[in-house]
Amino acid sequence: MNILLVNDDGITSPGLKALEDGVRAHGDRVFTVAPANNQSGRGGAVTLTDVLAIDDIGKDRWSVQGTPADCVRVALSYLGYQPHLILSGINLGTNLGEDIYASGTVGSARLGVLRGIPSAALSAASSDWSFTRSLLDRHFHAIVAAIESSDQVLNVNFPAFDGTRVQHATLAQGRYQDRVVSAHKDGDRHRVLLRSILQPKVEPSDPQTDRGAILQGITTLTYLPTALTNSPKALTPLA
User: Fold this and answer.
1) pLDDT per residue over 196-209, tens digit each?
2) How would you write 38-81 as a 3-class SS string?
């Protein structure tokens, strides 16, 4: 099986290395196309007018001066890869609940599905990559089966401890509020540092949600809708 690997933490990320080694261990061929530098928080952004610089850095390994979604575009169009699956990650830090909307890890997987290729985003709560790699090895076939059985993005989150269980989970609901951490004025320019604080709508430990399950040491599989829909609603004429 040919598997395209992308991420948003950049080509030198240890999470990407763990994913490359894990996929190869299962006998699959790996193509890696990742951003040249960290692109966290870029969501599904793509470069439309600037020229993309692409560097060949080894056998089937490329870096792109662009976004995570750009990496998918480059791999499929310019490099001509024809993967059976796209795996994005492994991201350092979880992507749970409303985190998915800003995540470049999720954004590149979403573009893969929109291009007709089964895709998943993988994220980890732990920076112990040997531990996360062990979870990937243990649950690899379950993850691949879940990707192939749906036309939606699969969002996978590995916990920071335990790791013996894997389950499907719903997205934890909540709302982010932005807080001003610091601000100062430099002439006519304002310089502001913002932090987003999550306000959960349900009990954070609810094991049916991705956030609650992670807190209990469970690897979560969550499907994210990608299809564009157009509900047939009657339109009221404007006066």
Assistant:
1) 666 655 555 678 89
2) CCCCCCCCCCCCCCCCEEEEECCEEEECCCHHHHHHHHHHHCCC
